Amino acid sequence: MNNSRLGVALLGCGFASRLHGRTLKKLPGVDRFFASRDASRASEYARRFGGAGSFGDYQAAIEDPRVDVVLLATPPASHAELAEAAFAAGKHVIVEKPPFLSVAEFDRVAGAAERAGRRMFVAENYFYKPLLRAIRSAVQEGAIGEVRIIDINALKQQRTGDWRDSQAVAGGGAFFEGGIHWVSFMANLGLTVTDARGFQPGPARGVDRTMVALFQYAEGAVGTLMYSWEIGSPMKGLRLSSIYGSEGAITFESNGLFLAVRGRKHRISIPDPRDLLGYTAMFEDFFRSIREDEPAAFDLDRARCDLQLVERIYETSGGTSAEPDPETAKAEASRTSTGTAGEPAGHDPSSPVTGNAF
User: Fold this and answer.
1) What pTM was computed for the model?
2) pLDDT at 350 over 50
């Protein structure tokens, strides 16, 4: 299957499918199909993004023999059922983040993938961002000595007014829907996370909009992550973050626009602007994994660790990302046809990456 074409069906025609549709259009050997419960919407997406076909029904897309891979760009509460249906039909699955409502649900669906002999991927583009690759390299080469403090600013203002306001459909609040990307960032810096704790600032009213998370690392470092959908940052999103070591510091724009290392060597760089958000590298790695029957660099162990850390942060913060009643979640999810969209955000698969003990 090394050189074969792949048919990819994107389920859910919302922001995520627009984003991925543009990326997939640039990749060779990939035929794109779009599915929505609104057939006209699916047809329009296929026209806009050069699709090979469209479907007005998710199951029809899953069962179509032209489809090899199903990409779940629907709200999180629908992911498990759709993924299990795809595996039953013999398809590989790419799941948008957050992948599932709980670690228990993650394990159940991963088991279905294993039994079907198909691959499941979690679409964590932050792992593949050029910024994270550059930071990981600097940390592992000891450019700033031993890492002591990690300070990540991920504050922004984001309006919702959709399924993200329903915990039954979204699985949690802002931190569950978007903060999970930054949890993955914290877990893949080249250090080993041993524990994490969460703190919710302000009064508890409905789903969370702001979270501060504290991370502890086996190497002795301590990290803080500030995440919000209600606290803005200057100039429509520019944010500075830093990593401090015993012999210097790494300062970077949180979105990856620049990185400065001050330590044993001084350098300023602009991580690869051609794939600033990491999506191209992510899909290339996933498709390589399918064609060569080899694990992806961002494998299920890493994805599970991210979700486990998120659960731990909610648990210690007093909030909850617990799995809601399945029937309630299913009913609410069925009322929306928009796609999920984690935060907009490459990784060199040959680069060594330290795992996490958590």
Assistant:
1) 0.88
2) no
